[in-house]
Specification:
Layout: H1 2-6, H2 29-45, H3 53-58, E1 62-65, H4 72-92, H5 101-121, H6 132-137, H7 148-153, H8 156-170, H9 178-199, H10 201-207, H11 210-218, E2 224-227, E3 230-233, H12 248-266, H13 270-275, H14 290-319, H15 325-332, H16 337-364, H17 388-422, H18 425-431, H19 433-451
Antiparallel strand pairs: 1-3, 2-3
Helix pairs in contact: 2-17, 2-19, 4-5, 4-9, 5-16, 8-12, 9-10, 12-14, 12-16, 14-15, 14-18, 14-19, 16-17, 17-18, 17-19
Length: 456
C-alpha cells in the first residue's frame, strides 16, 4: 500500500528528516554498567514486595474532573481538514522537506511527538482519528461485532500495514519527498476508510489500523485516564493492572514496533555499515543498501521476538507452575510497552527538538506563498539547541535515564502481570528471571546505540 504509493513518482533521494543530528562520543562504560545494575537491582527488590501490593497500588485513582463532553466527532473532522491541507501542501508546496509541512508533521509531530504525548496524556489519536467523522456520517460508527474472518486474523492487518510503514520510513530512498509522501498518505487514508466501511469503525480501528493500535498500547502507560467520561490521575503503567492478555498477533505487533525502532538506530551505526560492507565515511545513499536494510528490518524484529518468547518460555519452566505459552506471552508483552515508548523518546528526541522548529515555521506558510498564518514563519531555527558539550551532556542523560527508567518500570510491570498470571508472588519472581536478563541485555544495547558513532 504505502510501498506501492512510493513507487508512483521516481526522483531524487532525500535524507530522512528524523535522522540523528550528532554523535554522542561520551565515556559511556559506566552508564552501561550502571543501567544494567539498576535493572537488576529493581528485580532483586521485588522479592521484598508484599503479594498483591503492586496490583493494589495500580488500582488507585485520583479523579480530576467529572463527566466531560465527547467532542471526538468534531475533532475528527478538524483532523481530516488539516490532513487534506497537508496533503495538498505535499503536492503543491515546496519540494524541500524542511520547508514543506507534510513530511515535518508526519515524521516529527505525528510519529514522534504524538507518540510521546500519548505516553503521558493518554490516547490522543482517539481524538484526532480522521475516520471517525466520515464513519458517523456514513452510519459505520458505533460498537459492533467484528466479522468472524477479521477475528481470526487478529492483529495481522495492523502488522502488515506497520511493516509497510516501517519499510517506507527506514528503507525507501526518499520518505521525505513531499509529493511521494502525499500519495502514500492519501492511499493509506482511503484504504482505512474502505476498511471502516467494510467492517465498521470500531473493529477496524481496534485491530487493523496500526497507529490506533500502537497509540492505544502506549496510552496504557499514561498518568491520565479517561473512563466513563471522567478524567483521573494514576501511576505510570497502572492501567496495565486490568489489561487482558494480547493474542499472539497482538504480541507480535508490539515486538515489531520495538524491533523496527531499534533497527532505525542500528542501521546508521559504523557496526552495521561495516557488517554490510559499506565505508561509513563514504555512505553511498539509501538506494545502494535497500536489500541489506530490508533484510535487517526483518531480522532485527524477528530476533527480538524470538528472544522474548524464549525468555517467557524459560521463565514458565523455572516457575514450576507453568501456564500456556500463548497466555503468558500475551500477558507479559504488556511490560514491553514502556521500553517501546522509551526507545522512541531516546532515539527521536533530537529530531523532535530540531525538526519541531521547522514544523512550526512550515505550518505558517504551507504552500510557500510568503504567508505567516501563525506568526512562526520567520522563526529562527536554533540547531545549536542540541549542539555542544553542554547540550550533549543534558540530552545523553535524558535519553539514558529514559531507557534505564523504562526497563526498571518494565521489570516492575512484568512482576505485577506475572503475579496476576500465577497468583503467587514467589512463583512470579522465579518466572521473571529470564525476562529480566533479557531486559538487562536490551538496556545495555539501547545505551550503546545512543553512544556509538553513526555514518548515515
Amino acid at each position: 500500500m504505502i510501498i506501492g504509493a512510493a513507487t508512483l513518482a521516481p526522483g531524487e533521494a532525500l535524507a530522512h528528516a528524523s535522522d540523528r543530528g550528532f554523535v554522542l562520543l561520551l565515556p559511556t562504560g559506566h552508564y552501561l554498567v550502571g543501567g544494567a545494575l539498576a535493572v537488576a537491582a529493581s528485580f532483586a527488590v521485588l522479592w521484598l514486595v508484599p503479594a498483591g501490593a503492586l496490583g493494589r497500588l495500580g488500582a488507585r485513582r485520583l479523579t480530576l474532573f467529572g463527566r466531560m463532553p465527547d467532542l471526538r466527532t468534531a475533532t475528527s473532522w478538524g483532523s481530516l481538514g488539516l490532513l487534506a491541507i497537508l496533503v495538498a501542501a505535499g503536492w503543491l508546496g515546496s519540494r524541500d522537506p524542511l520547508s514543506n509541512p507534510l513530511p515535518l508533521v508526519v515524521w516529527t509531530l505525528f510519529w514522534i511527538g504524538l507518540t510521546m504525548a500519548s505516553g503521558v496524556f493518554g490516547n490522543l489519536l482517539d481524538w484526532f482519528d480522521p475516520w471517525r467523522g466520515p464513519a458517523r456520517l456514513l452510519g459505520r460508527l458505533g460498537e459492533r461485532s467484528a466479522p468472524a474472518w477479521l477475528e481470526r486474523l487478529g492483529y495481522l492487518p495492523a502488522i502488515a500495514q506497520f511493516a509497510a510503514f516501517a519499510w517506507f520510513e527506514l528503507v525507501y530512498p526518499a520518505p521525505d519527498d513531499p509529493g511521494r509522501l502525499a500519495w502514500a498518505v492519501s492511499i493509506y487514508w482511503l484504504v482505512s476508510l474502505a476498511g471502516v466501511l467494510a467492517v465498521g469503525h470500531d473493529p477496524w480501528i481496534r485491530r487493523c489500523e496500526p497507529f490506533s493500535v500502537f497509540f492505544r498500547i502506549v496510552s496504557k502507560l499514561a498518568v491520565f485516564e479517561r473512563r466513563d467520561g471522567r478524567l483521573a490521575l494514576c501511576l505510570p503503567g497502572a492501567k496495565l493492572a486490568g489489561a487482558e492478555p494480547l493474542p499472539l498477533s497482538g504480541a507480535l505487533f508490539l515486538l515489531l514496533v520495538l524491533g523496527s525502532v531499534s533497527f532505525d538506530g542500528l542501521m546508521r551505526t559504523f557496526a552495521w555499515l561495516g557488517a554490510i560492507g559499506i565505508n561509513p565515511l563514504e555512505f553511498p545513499g539509501r538506494s545502494a543498501v535497500m536489500v541489506e536494510n530490508t533484510a535487517g528490518l526483518v531480522l532485527v524484529p524477528a530476533a527480538f521476538c524470538a528472544a522474548f518468547f524464549v525468555a517467557v518460555w524459560a521463565g514458565e519452566k523455572l516457575s514450576r507452575e507453568p501456564v500456556p505459552l500463548s497466555r503468558a506471552a500475551g500477558t507479559l508483552v504488556w511490560s514491553i510497552a514502556p521500553i517501546a515508548l522509551a526507545y522512541h523518546f531516546a532515539h527521536y528526541l533530537i529530531a523532535l527538538l530540531v525538526n519541531g522548529q521547522y514544523a512550526l515555521a512550515a505550518l505558517s506558510d504551507p504552500f510557500s506563498r510568503g504567508w505567516n498564518l501563525f506568526g512562526t514563519a520567520d522563526n529562527y531555527i536554533s540547531a545549536g539547541l542540541v549542539m555542544g558539550p553542554g547540550a550533549a551532556w543534558v540530552l545523553w542523560n535524558c535519553q539514558a535515564a529514559a531507557i534505564v527508567g523504562a526497563h526498571v518500570l518494565a521489570v516492575v510491570l512484568a512482576h505485577m502481570l506475572s503475579e496476576k498470571l500465577h497468583g503467587d508472588s514467589k512463583v512470579a519472581v522465579r518466572s521473571q528471571i529470564p525476562l529480566t536478563i533479557l531486559m538487562i541485555v536490551y538496556t545495555v544495547f539501547g545505551l550503546w546505540l545512543l553512544a556509538t558513532p553513526t555514518g548515515a
